[in-house]
Amino acid sequence: KAGVTQTPRYLIKTRGQQVTLSCSPISGHRSVSWYQQTPGQGLQFLFEYFSETQRNKGNFPGRFSGRQFSNSRSEMNVSTLELGDSALYLCASSLVGGIDEQFFGPGTRLTVL
Amino acid sequence: KQEVTQIPAALSVPEGENLVLNCSFTDSAIYNLQWFRQDPGKGLTSLLLIQSSQREQTSGRLNASLDKSSGRSTLYIAASQPGDSATYLCAVRFDSARQLTFGSGTQLTVLP
Fold first, then answer.
1. Could you give the CA distance from residue B79 to residue B63 in angstroms, rounded to a whole number?
2. In whole numbers, what is the pLDDT of chain A averaged over residues?
3. CB contact under 8 A, A42 and B43
4. Measured at the alpha carbon of residue A88, what is the angle toward residues B39 and B76, in degrees to the nearest 5?
């Protein structure tokens, strides 16, 4: 069974631009969560989607948004990029979310210049 | 505030040694705890998931224990190998939250 896939793997953007990252969960998984990883803050939760609905949201500004499609694929968008948005963005999928095991993708490395 | 702490931040051991990684959390009301491994620049690989009703889980050379009352978990690695070198992350799902709360990780180096 294929694992969680994320595209693109690397991105370079400049301040003020916007970016869209994509995540395809493991087949049959309906929950997708997004995390940001930085050297200073570690791994921080962004949001979780289940059945096309945002079910949970972390403490990030409104510039960070996401959505989920009917096939469970998810995208996250960051608008008006700032230097501090440079990070590894990780997507995790699970069967139904909540308390079941989460499986992570390889991440998208975003660099903001 | 619900927090997860991992000490030490880095650990270096000779090949073949048995070792223990520590994880502590501030609230004993948890759903489960998951241990991950992360290689440099890569995503997270799930190692073990322990439900709140369990005391331990084993997979190959890995054994994870959970003591909710004391807010602690340990990951035991037997007969360490250079390929075990990575950052090990502990993540807790507290009762009051659906998402995982991560520790800052322990960077393990196994010397040949």
1. 12
2. 95
3. no
4. 30
